Amino acid sequence: MLNVVMISTGEEVLYGDITDTNAAWLSAQFFEQGFAMTRRVTVGDDYEALAKEIEMCSLSADIVIVNGGLVQHQTILQRHLLQWLLMLVLSNRMLGLLR
Question: What is the C-alpha to C-alpha distance for residues 67 and 50, in angstroms, rounded to an integer?
């Protein structure tokens, strides 16, 4: 069975200003397809905290889903994280080729 982890982002979710209906819906969708979540975590709109959580989850999970809002500062944050993740994936692939 695959180890699936979801990270929800956003101060409004972290502080309870809104209910994280996206995470609940995504969890149900994955479960219906036979992929049960093994862990769900919420991180605020902090680049370093989110990057650290993604890195930690990627060490133990087969699939890491990042679920977040669409407000401007989150979009900028997500763009930087995607660039970082792409560099991480490419670096790991290059290391694999060199071994």
Answer: 11
Contacts 24+ apart (CB under 8 A), 84-92: 84/51, 85/54, 88/55
Give strand pairing partners of 3: none
Q: Is residue 33 helix, strand or coil?
A: coil
- The residue count of the chain comes to 99
Maximum C-alpha span of the chain: 48
Q: What is the pTM of this model?
A: 0.71
The pair of structure tokens assigned to 81 is: 């994280």
Burial class (CB in 10 A: 0-12, 13-18, 19+), 64: buried
Cα separation, 98 vs 45, in Å, equals: 36
pLDDT tens by residue, the chain, 99 residues: 788 999 998 888 889 998 988 899 989 998 998 888 999 999 988 878 888 888 888 888 888 888 876 555 555 666 666 666 666 655 555 445 545
